[in-house]
């Protein structure tokens, strides 16, 4: 691919400016990879564990060992890792349904959760309750409340304290969304999540649950290491390392994971059943590769921040900022620019590069969404992708990149489409 000289000059400048930042991503990758390897050795991973089981899946040594490895690496007491969880939303739903009971209160302390959880919880886009009879948490008598973030995107600790005092012991789950989702707020660091955990535990017996999607291996520790009772994520995002074909994970305290496992299968059988059907090898390999792949995605995101900042677009995080997830926000300011950005990403993809993404009414979202994702695994966000809701300020959310080199090509392609639109 050939690119405009303006873009190649900006990229060359960016890579010099980002050298120290890239080195930090590599340092974190090394630290996390060392921890993963230690866990593989500790749990004596062998080729025999890659054989699949069928039927009930009793005594699936590979499945059970992978659970132990996730728990070990994430600083948790237990974990549940399953290929047949379809996405991050289902993973979170399993955790919430496992922990919450009629009359309990779910308190979201990072504002309204991601769009696809609205129907799971039973709320409207403004956070008000909406009992539909479809089987949401609201339909089963679970109440919901939220604490908005501060105007600068910071956590409102005073607001959390007030809500915990208001609802008292009825608060069963304090819910934290680590990543920004389709919002303009910053992503939370593990240290900040630790502060929320400390406050919550000082005032209640609630489970602290963290939607950890997009955040795994961006730092040297996960939220479970600072006291979160449960973290949840998708295997076609960071933790799957680009090789898992599907799945999700839940990690945390033994009791919290046990309750989630009862929702994932049945009360009494929990994590003891579930055939792996030959998927173990890809999940083991993906988790082994994940720290390195995440570093590639972080480099791609930082490059995009620098390039589009130079082109005059609002970006968050800034190229020089610390990063706590793999998402890069680029405020395109118009529907045409957002579509052009996504076309550029799609054109630079290894799969379906010939396709032209268009906005559509995607299930679970309140606005039409445009999504560029020419991935080997359908919907894989750890592979280079870009998407965004068709609403002001028409923001593209870029994430992924299995290699920095391919991510770099993608960023340059998106920038080319933006410049072409500007010059039309």
Helix percent band: 25-40%
Strand fraction equals 5-15%
Q: Determine the number of helices (DSSP H or I, runs of at least 4 residues).
A: 11
Radius of gyration: 21 Å
Strand order of the largest sheet: 1-7-6-5-4-2-3
- Main beta sheet, described? 7 strands, mixed
| Secondary-structure element string | HHHEHEHEHEHEEEHHEEHEEEH
Give a count of the beta strands, DSSP E runs of length 2 or more.
12
Which regions contain 5 or more consecutive residues with pLDDT less than 50? Answer: none
**Shape annotation:** globular
Q: What is the average of the pLDDT values? A: 96
Terminal CA distance reads 21 Å
Could you characterize what this model shows?
The chain contains 11 helices and 12 strands. It has 424 residues and is of the alpha/beta class. The model has no long low-confidence stretch (mean pLDDT 96). The strands form 2 sheets. Strands 1-7-6-5-4-2-3 form a 7-stranded mixed beta sheet, sandwiched between helices. The protein has a 5-stranded antiparallel beta sheet with strand order 8-9-12-11-10, covered by helices on one side.
List keywords for this structure.
alpha/beta, seven-stranded mixed β-sheet, five-stranded antiparallel β-sheet
Q: Would you spell out the secondary-structure blueprint of this structure?
A:
Blueprint: H1 5-17, H2 19-42, H3 61-73, E1 78-82, H4 88-99, E2 105-108, H5 118-121, E3 143-146, H6 157-167, E4 171-177, H7 190-203, E5 207-211, E6 230-234, E7 248-252, H8 254-264, H9 280-310, E8 314-316, E9 328-331, H10 335-347, E10 369-372, E11 385-389, E12 395-399, H11 404-423
Parallel strand pairs: 2-3, 2-4, 4-5, 5-6
Antiparallel strand pairs: 1-7, 6-7, 8-9, 9-12, 10-11, 11-12
